[in-house]
Design goal:
There is one protein chain. By secondary structure, the protein is an alpha/beta fold. It has two domains: 5-276, Spore Coat Polysaccharide Biosynthesis Protein SpsA, Chain A, CATH 3.90.550; 303-403, UDP N-Acetylglucosamine Acyltransferase, domain 1. The chain is built from nine helices and 31 strands. It has helices at residues 39-48, 63-72, 102-107, 110-114, 134-143, 205-216, 225-232, 266-276, 386-389; strands spanning 5-10, 31-32, 36-37, 53-57, 83-87, 120-125, 128-130, 148-156, 164-168, 174-179, 193-204, 239-243, 260-262, 303-305, 307-308, 311-312, 314-316, 319-320, 325-327, 330-332, 335-336, 341-342, 347-349, 352-353, 358-359, 364-366, 368-370, 375-376, 381-382, 394-395, 401-403. The strands form seven sheets. Strands 1, 4, 5, 6, 8, 9, 10, 11 and 12 form a nine-stranded mixed sheet that branches. A six-stranded mixed sheet has the order 18-21-24-27-31-30. A five-stranded parallel sheet has the order 14-19-22-25-28, with no helix packed on it. A hairpin with a 2-residue loop joins strand 15 (307-308) and strand 16. Involved in the biosynthesis of ADP-glucose, a building block required for the elongation reactions to produce glycogen. Catalyzes the reaction between ATP and alpha-D-glucose 1-phosphate (G1P) to produce pyrophosphate and ADP-Glc. Residues 300-403 form the Glucose-1-phosphate adenylyltransferase/Bifunctional protein GlmU-like C-terminal hexapeptide domain. GO terms for molecular function: ATP binding; glucose-1-phosphate adenylyltransferase activity.
Amino acid sequence: MQLKVLAFVLAGGEGTRLYPLTRERAKPAVPFGGKYRIVDFVLSNLVNSGIYSIYVLIQFRSQSLLQHLSDGWQFGGILKNEFLIPVPAQMRTKGKEWYRGTADAIHQNLNLIEQSAPDVVVVFGADHIYRMNIREMIEYHQQRHADVTIAALPTDKRYAKDFGVIEADSGGRIIGFHEKRADAPTMPGDSQRVYASMGNYVFSTDMLLRMIEEDQEDSQSSHDFGRDILPKAIDRAEMFAYDFNTNNIPGEDPDKPPYWRDVGTLDAFYEANMDIRAISPELNLFNREWPLRTASYPDPPSKFAFDEENRRGQAIDSVVSGGSIISGGFIRDSVLGRHVFVHAGCEIESCVIFDNCDIGQNAKLRRCILEKNVRIPENAVIGFDHEEDRKHYHVTESGIVVIDGTRTPMQLSTITI
């Protein structure tokens, strides 16, 4: 069966709980895993699934995201049905407002659906770390003759209070929604887990248009799919839950559960970065059959310098990105971005370091997140005395120290006069 598929990626998230990492950028543009951005995960999932017609809906602090999309996600112009286009709030409603919710973001861009007439519309968020074969979810949607299919993550019931929970019958048909309720119904045949909504949807186009237009007439609505539109549609639309645990990724161990992380807080963001540097990582970045795509830069290889006692460049159980130089420093259990310079005598343990940072000689860092362009002075000691750290930096309740950097200079062209 040939299907025309149009994708909307909701990438306008403000990411207030990730502050100060979101001081200068939207949440989907936050660096992750050394060389990537959070948004790369959903875009890679779409492209790897054969979906090439993509609109990225942007809003808050979008410049960093726009720059990244320009650097890494511009398709060729030969095939007009293959595109990735960022779309700001169009202000097409009477009040000329910013996006007021996930459903309103789609409503303000209904013209993009109407002019392309897709068979199905996929609406995915841009702020989670995961791999997903979206083609399989669409196949499930078509097999069930569904109007709406929602990606559902089987989750221990003790976390029900943290998620929107889907109630489904034994055939996967959705019969209820429960927003962040500790006593939410468990999965059919599994009394220990609930279906947590992943906020990823497949819609049959006609039903999506009908739902969106009707919701706009409701003055009490917050115009959100999870809170407003889908709960009201239970008795009016064929809705099914797609079990994320049944999703198969080419090149992955079929017995290994799919990886998904909500990186909405600094602690969760830090832990997800730590996941990728493990000996047997839960998230495999080395699967060539399902590559994680991102912007490509002309970086040189990373370099490890000196082979002297107490001055040997080393990185143990760590990820080190291109252009970084480990000049006599020691790194353990850490993730380093591009062009990080680690000077002699440094000791770096369990840190996440963004691009273009310089760690001064003999500095010691533990459980830190360094923003872009941070300069750590010689002999600095950070992450060992939290009372002292709080005088200068943001420190989470779990003791992760977040160090602000500076803006990356923009190179301009010059003219001769």
